[in-house]
Amino acid sequence: MAVRDILMVVSDAPANEQPLALTLALAARHGARVSGFCPLDLLAPPRPAMELLGYGEAMGADQETAQPSAVAAQAEQLEAAFRQALDRTGVAGSWHVGDADPPAALLRLAHQNDLIVFGQPQPDGALAGRAAELMQQALLEAGRPLLIVPYAGRFEALAKPEGFHVLIGWTETREAARAVHDALPLLAGAGAVTVLTVLAGRDAAIDAQPPAAELAQHLRRHGLPANAVRTVTDGIPDSDALLSYACDISADLLVLGGYGHSPLRERMWGGVTRDVLRHMTLPVLMSH
């Protein structure tokens, strides 16, 4: 299935530059339309206790203390920059604001889109916790893949018609299988697709073939130049092994199954997911 509609979550201006540039380049490549979505509560400065509350509670408390005129003015500036970028690139699009219930509005929009793009929350940003929670809700509930773009770096290679390099972090799980399937439209034209299995030392017995060999064969039947490999960790976290391998092969995209728990039960990403998002140096496509 082709990518025809892309939804980008727009927050503060400095964090939008690279995600917007990549979103528009992908839209131009795929002939897709881009919808910009601005959750207003991510523009309002939080009170000190905000990050201890849930998303809905924090949003309600913010509405009592935020300056609506300042938030509205910032949203208008973001909209103007978004529309100027659409005009400059010739990409069709629309603008949406989430005010009363941003998570619900995001989920409704997601159902009419093929891909959701987020910028990586800046680790030291005042709103990083709520931005990450909104991203987690989208991952768990939207039924669409997320493309998360680092706040630093340039990633034009991924939007080229061909020749880019994709790394798939593979485990025998539903989430990983979902991510690979959801990534297929973006993989068209890839110059190389490396399917990596990370093994701990005690599990690293040399088999006749890497664990993901059959998946690589499946991807080759899709016309992709896929190759299965393995790497053995020596006590380092799996997230570090994935990102280090991505750097070694100059990968342009990392595809990963996204893990997490319901925000109503535990506000925490799965360990590998959380650590990759914290230290990512390349765009990451996740599905749950």
Key phrases:
10-stranded mixed sheet, Rossmann fold, 2 domains, alpha/beta, 288 residues
Describe the structure.
The radius of gyration is 19 Å and the shape is globular. Strands 3-2-1-4-5-10-9-6-7-8 form a ten-stranded mixed beta sheet, sandwiched between helices. It has helices at 13-30, 55-65, 68-89, 102-110, 128-141, 174-187, 213-221, 238-248, 271-279, and strands at 5-9, 33-39, 93-98, 115-119, 146-149, 165-169, 192-200, 226-233, 253-257, 284-287. Mean pLDDT is 85; it is low at 49-53, 61-65 and 261-268. It has 288 residues and is of the alpha/beta class. The longest helix has 22 residues, at 68-89. 41% of the residues lie in helices and 20% in strands. It is built from nine helices and ten strands. Helix 4 packs parallel to helix 5 and helix 8 packs across helix 9 (271-279). It folds into two domains: 5-149, Rossmann fold; 156-287, Rossmann fold, CATH 3.40.50.620. Strand 4, helix 5 and strand 5 form a beta-alpha-beta unit.
